């Protein structure tokens, strides 16, 4: 009986069928990038807001004040009395009732000078000129509540983390395409509920669930794409990440055109429902079917692939070699039971963590350009395109391992040089920091490909999901690490990033080279590959 890779070569390793499936699944990367980075626009800080004095609503209606007039009566005395106060987080400790004069509402406090009027902290009585422009104004995430915005992003990353474990496991047990479609449905439904959440608690719960399902769509589509192409075509795993970058570049355009956060949330969530149409055009992974002892279904799909590719399978291809490895429900122990699988798993987990931590840290530190948020975000995405192009140029000529190691080391050295350069040459610091960003972006994209190629089919989705969960852990830690250490010394985070990246670059050189090698089907294949 022929092996799966032999049948795939005859059916076409990257023909019209695979190209169509690849292009369709690439759209998932665009939508996932929207979710990944949406907090930048959902959580924009309101430009003009103040704390309202109790009774001000009724008084404004009685006196016929505009919002601007009310603000002048509320904030101007506070600002004159205390120049450091803008009226955003504190208010005059007074109450306006029916006895207050419309012409001079503070007249009854005439025995106090403006600077001696009592003050009170604001808790939940803010007024925004654009109350629905972001979740900050919607749920009052300002002043003492500002940390809740960071919590919303941490909750999303926790959702990614949970999705990596739960849906990664489910995709290996119940099938790639089933979990992909359920994840798309879940991400769409949860996204709609987030847009209309009546309070911040409901918002957090369903943002967490959207993170769970969003991670399921991204990881599962990546594995499907990798498993239906030949060993020489697996750089499609890098190309699919270019679509993630395209999403990063498209997102600011959506945010610019849509004035409310609910509109942005719906715009980035509703496309998930379109992916349900893939039920009729994207098949189950035949590699996965073989591991579940479903050779007939796998062969039927291979005949369909060959037909669409204009090929014809030989008549003796009536059966495909089925993995002799006993199929069981995957667990973490399966990833560390044998010595070379254990080494690969631990190195890959560290590589995921380092890539995410350094990548997000450099993005937050650089800021790229100031002023126009939409333009700055667009440029931050454009910077990533050269990294993907460099990978495409080098990975099939040099291999995976060397670019993987060098990109990490370059990122680490660039971080160190940036930290040591003097502040009076900002253009050079920016240039070197950008080089570090390119290096860590390359490392981040290569780890996806290498992770997929170093696990057997029976454990591939679970292995990729488990290792990539360290990426989500790095994403949670990155902002806290950056800002806490920067408070001690501005460049201290770069020193930490440098050490982590260089160590990672050295460790990944211990991984086996996978260029041009068939995807391993069993754990024994992985052990032989490492030898």
Task: Give your account of this protein's structure.
Helix 2 crosses helix 10, helix 10 (236-257) packs antiparallel against helix 18 (385-394) and helix 16 crosses helix 21 (460-488). By secondary structure, the chain is mainly α. The longest helix is centred in the C-terminal third of the chain and has 29 residues, at 460-488. Helix content is 65%, strand content 2%. The strands form 2 sheets. A two-stranded antiparallel ribbon has the order 1-4. It has a two-stranded antiparallel sheet with strand order 2-3. The protein has 3 domains: 1-45 and 142-322, MFS general substrate transporter like domains (Growth Hormone, Chain: A); 49-122, no CATH class; 331-530, MFS general substrate transporter like domains (Growth Hormone, Chain: A). The protein starts with a helix and ends with a helix. The chain contains 23 helices and 4 strands. The chain has helices at 4-11, 16-37, 39-42, 56-63, 67-81, 135-138, 147-174, 176-195, 200-227, 236-257, 261-269, 271-274, 286-291, 295-308, 332-336, 339-366, 373-382, 385-394, 401-420, 426-453, 460-488, 492-508, 523-530, and strands at 49-51, 90-92, 119-121, 126-128. Its main location: membrane. This is Solute carrier family 22 member 3.
